[in-house]
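Q: Predict the assembly, please.
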Amino acid sequence: MIEEEVLKIIKPTEEDKKGIEKVLEIIRERLNKLDFEVEGSFRKGTWLRQDTDIDVFVFYPKDVGKEYLERNALNDIINRIKDLDYTLAYAEHPYVIVNINNVEVDIVPALRVESGDKAITAVDRTPFHTKYVTSHLDERGKDEVRLLKRFMKGIGVYGAELKVQGFSGYATELLIIYYGNFRKVLEEASKWKHPIKIELTKPMKIFSEPLIIPDPVDPKRNVTAAVSLKNIATFSIAAKYYLKNPSIEFFFPSKKVEEKVKGDVLILRLNLDEKSSEDIVWGQIKRSVNKIERALKQYGFRVIDVQAWGDTNNITIAVQLESKNIGQYYLNIGPQYYSQTIEDFIQKNDNIWVGEDGRLYSIKERKEYDAETIAKKNIVLKVKYNIESYWLQNTEDQQIMKFLRKTPTWLK
Amino acid sequence: MIEEEVLKIIKPTEEDKKGIEKVLEIIRERLNKLDFEVEGSFRKGTWLRQDTDIDVFVFYPKDVGKEYLERNALNDIINRIKDLDYTLAYAEHPYVIVNINNVEVDIVPALRVESGDKAITAVDRTPFHTKYVTSHLDERGKDEVRLLKRFMKGIGVYGAELKVQGFSGYATELLIIYYGNFRKVLEEASKWKHPIKIELTKPMKIFSEPLIIPDPVDPKRNVTAAVSLKNIATFSIAAKYYLKNPSIEFFFPSKKVEEKVKGDVLILRLNLDEKSSEDIVWGQIKRSVNKIERALKQYGFRVIDVQAWGDTNNITIAVQLESKNIGQYYLNIGPQYYSQTIEDFIQKNDNIWVGEDGRLYSIKERKEYDAETIAKKNIVLKVKYNIESYWLQNTEDQQIMKFLRKTPTWLK
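A: Predicted assembly structure:
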C-alpha cells in the first residue's frame, strides 16, 4: 500500500522525538517561571519527520494588551535566549525564532484568554486549537493527518502563508477529525463543488469563501478562509486522480520535466535588496502578478499564464503570451452614423471609414505595445529590487520547465 | 455656388444631346417595325454629360413568355445589328450592347405588361418608371437629380450593381420628387436613422430593409432594397458634412492620397480567366471578402478591414490585420474542477493547469496561423483565376493608398 510506504518515510521515530525533546529542554530552561506551553504539530503529534518547527507559546494575562507583548514580553524573551542563534520574525505581531541543532523553535508571545472566541490576537486561539485536536485525534488519526499533510505538500496546496494560500495544519487536522481518515477525506474532496461546508460546529457568521470550516473553538471564524479556489480545485482533482490510481508521485513529486517554449515567454528575475517578511513580499508579488496580467490583457495581449515562484529575496515572474507581437495599431469601433457623437469621433480620429453595419471605425495607435515594458511597469514592490528580464529561448531551469509543462506530474 | 459650378460640368449641352440623337437614329432604323422605346436617364432627361448609356427597350406581348425573349427576340435583335460593334450581356436575362461612336446603347428585350405591378421580368417595369418620373419632374427637377447623382457618384454610393450596392438612378429621381430638390434631400438624409421610410405611395408589403422607398408603380417592391447600410450611412454623413462645408470634392474627389502601412496588410491580386457578368463575379467577391474576414477572426486574428476593388477580371482584395503574428499556440479554457468532463479534458489536452477561478486551462496548437493561407482558402470564385499575394511593404498604387487612408477626402 502506497500510504504505508509514505508513512514509513514521514512518521517520526522515537529518536526524532528525542532529538526535539532535547532541544525543547534547552528552551524550557530559558523560559523558566514564565507561563509557557508547547503548541503546534509537535505537541499535537501530527508533525512530519524532518519537516517541522517547534512552536512554544509564552502567555501573558490578557489585560497587559498587545503592545506589552510586542515590547516588554518580546524583550524579556530575547534577553533569555540572546546567546543562542536567533532572529526576529513578524506575523500579526513579532516573535523569536531560535535555531538549535538545526531545529527551528518559534517562541511566540500570546495573551491568555478564557476561550477561543475571546482571542485578542490571532495566536491567542492556538492553545484551544491544540486542546481541540489532541482531544479528538487518536494515534491512528494522527498518522492520517500526516498522510493528508504530505499529500497536500506534494500537490502544492499545503501552507497557510500568502505565497501558497493553501491549507493550514489545523485545517488538515479538522478534515481528518470530520471525515475520519485520509482516504475518506479524499473521497469527499473528489466530490467537492464550492461553496463547500464542513461543520464540526455551527457557524456563527455567514461566510462567503468557497471552503467553509467554522472553527470549533471560535465559530465566527472560517479556518479555511484564506485557501484559494485554485488550491481547493487542485486538491479535489488530485483526490479524484489519486483514488483512481494511487501513486507515490502525489506525495513526493520527483519526475524531472521537460517542455518546449510555447508562445512567447517573458522571464522576470527579481532580486530584493532588503529582507522583508515573506507574507508582505508575497502579498506584493501576488498583486504584481494580477496587475501584470490585467494590464497586458487591457493593452490587447492574449495572456496564456502568469506565475511567480521563489523565496523572499529571489523571485521569478514568468509571463506567457500567445504572441508578443500584437501590432502597433488597433481597430477602434466608433458610433453609428446617426449618433450625435460622430463629429467628435471624426475630429479626433484618423483612418476613418463606415462599416457594413453603419458604424464608424478608425485605426488607432496603441499607447504601449511592448509586453516587457508593460510587465515591468506593473510590478508593485515596496522594497528596492533589481530586475533582469528576457524572452525565453531555451532553458535548463526546472522551475521554468514546470511552468512550461504546467500539467502536474501526478496528473499526467 | 458649388452646385452651379457642378451643373456646368455635368449638364449635357444641346450638342451632347444631338450626338446621342444621331446614334439613336441608327438604332431606330435597325429596330424598324419593332415595338421599341427609349428608356433610362436619357429619355427622362436626368443623364449626366459624357457619362451615360442609352437604354432602348424592345417590347413583346407578355404572352410570348421569358424564354421567347431570351431566344427568338434576342436573335432577331442580334440579326439586325450584327454588323455593328456589339456584345452580349446578362442581367436577369440577356440583352445586347452596341457601341456606336463611343456611345453605349443597351438594347433590352422586355414584355409589354398593363402596369408596373404586373411585371413578369424586372425590366418590364421600366416604361412605367419612365412615365412616373417624366410626369413628376420639371426641368429644374432634372438638374436636381443630376446634382444628386453626381454627389452620390463622388462619394461612391451610386449604382445599383452588386459591386456598389448603391442607389439606382430611379432612386435618386424618387428622392428628388419626394423632397423637392438636391439640398432638401441632403438636409433630410443628414438626419436619417434607419429604418428610413420614404413613401411616395403606401407600401403593399412590410419591408425589412434599412431604407424603404416603395415603388410608386409597384408598391410591393422596395426601390432601395439593395442599398447597403454602409452606403446609406455614408450618404447621410456626407450630406451632413456637405451642408456644413460645401465643396466640389464631394462631387469630384480629386485629391491624391498618401498613407503609411498600419498593421499588416495582405494584398491579393486576382486575375479571372473567363469573362463573366459583373454581378455574378462581384457576388462571389463579396462572399469571399466576408468569408475571409470571418475565417481570420475565427482563427484568432484581429481584423482591421477587408475590402475589394477592381473590375470584372482584375480584382484586388486587401486584408488589414492588427498583426499577422498571432502565435502558434492559444489559451484553451476548460471546465470547472467539479465538472463531469474534466477527465475527458485532461485526457485530450496537454499543458493543463488549474486557474485561480477553479477552471482547468490548457495550451492548444492552432490548426492554422498563417493569415495568407487562410485568406486564399476562403476565396470562393466559381471561375478559374490566378492569384498573386504579398504582404504590403510600400506602394504607389492609389487604390491601395485609399484603402490605407480610409478617410474619404471629402470628410477630412
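Chain B has four domains: 2-116, 137-250, 264-326+368-404, 329-365. Chain B touches chain A through 57 residues (CB under 8 Å).
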